[in-house]
Amino acid sequence: MIAWADIYKVVAAMAPLYFALALGYGSVRWWRFFSPEQCAAINTMVIYFSMPFFTFDFVVRTDPFSMNYRVIATDAVSKVITILAMAAWARCCAKAGAYSWSITGFSLAALNNTLVVGVPLLNAMYGKWAQDLIVQIAVVQSIVWFPLLLMAFELRKAWVVGVGGGATSTTDDIVLDGGDGGRARRVGPGLSSPPEKDGYGDGDGDVEINMDGVIASAAGSGLRFWPTARTVGLKLARNPNVYASVLGVVWACIAYRWHLSLPGIVTGSLQVMSKTGTGMSMFSMGLFMAQQERVIACGAGLTALGMALRFVAGPVATLLGAAALGLRGDVLHLAIIQAALPQSIASFVFAKEYGLHANVLSTAVIFGTLISLPILIAYYAVLAIV
């Protein structure tokens, strides 16, 4: 059974996150240090500088030749199950914004905080081997699943921008569902669209469009798949988070194959930036919270849905993947518990940057991290019995 000293280690690892979040919140809500434009600039700095260095730093320190590929495959199968479930729901649901919500649903169910919470918790529960496995899962999440999430964001952005502009000249209006609890605003042919950032949403609100209507409009406006795919590919190629993951894997393969190491001056330069990744992400979340009317920005219903996806749907999908690949014993228990870890901080950062349900993701990170410890201990106790 996990000891109280081990629980303290987990709490001690999580407490600094809330210190950074409180500083961000207070700097806007109480001290008025930053304007909304400056808050957006800080989030952009996090996504294009802090997060790429953070990703590269821990990817290059993971041996790609000693990975447990059955556990990695189980995690991959569980995420594919989640993607298929979200896609099926979006296709069957006639509600506007269903495809956008499927992206958010995948983030909530599949992307977790493997490093800050997972490493100390699983090390306390199962030992060093569990810590090594959770780091491997974190690396794959960074080099595979986050780039795929970015691709989904960019595809959605390309559809909304590419079709929305042309559609407004041929249709009466397009309903854009903002992140304001469902109160839609209409953009007619004679009206200007909501403020844009990089040709898209304003970064603080959400811009949703009925994708069934978008696809129909695409046929009429001549928007083709390959030009859109090319645009998305170029955007991803210029995204530092993508090539930080790729370069990290390439160097890790070289370094562990031929036993090389980076010079100290390079390592130090990387780490001085990578150490800002987690702290600045939480600081940015505090800035976002301070600009909302309520701390729990998305309301009780969406909060409950987010918690169900994070702590129930994720572990169930992992259990299905583990059954398919034959995981047993403590390795199976580890796979299930890591699927119930709290929400990934990076998922909020990306949602904020692309203007998609950032209020839901911020609530999932904040509230989910607070309630995660007793839930994870309960999972540990139940799995020890069965």
UniProtKB/TrEMBL annotation:
GO BP terms: auxin polar transport; auxin-activated signaling pathway
Transmembrane segments: 6-28, 40-59, 71-89, 101-121, 133-153, 302-325, 331-351, 358-382
Annotated segments matching region Disordered: 178-203
Topology class, membrane: Multi-pass membrane protein
Keywords, sorted A to Z: Auxin signaling pathway, Membrane, Transmembrane, Transmembrane helix, Transport
Pfam families (UniProt xref): Mem_trans
InterPro entries documented for this protein: Auxin_eff_plant, Auxin_Efflux_Carrier, Mem_transp_PIN-like
A GO molecular-function descriptor: auxin efflux transmembrane transporter activity
Major subcellular site: membrane
Domain of life: Eukaryota
Cellular component aspect of the GO annotation: endoplasmic reticulum; plasma membrane
Keyword Membrane: yes
Compartments where found: Membrane
Role summary: May act as a component of the auxin efflux carrier.
Family per similarity comment: Belongs to the auxin efflux carrier (TC 2.A.69.1) family.
Name the UniProt record assigns to this protein: Auxin efflux carrier component
Protein source organism: Zizania palustris (Northern wild rice)
Source organism phylogeny: Eukaryota, Viridiplantae, Streptophyta, Embryophyta, Tracheophyta
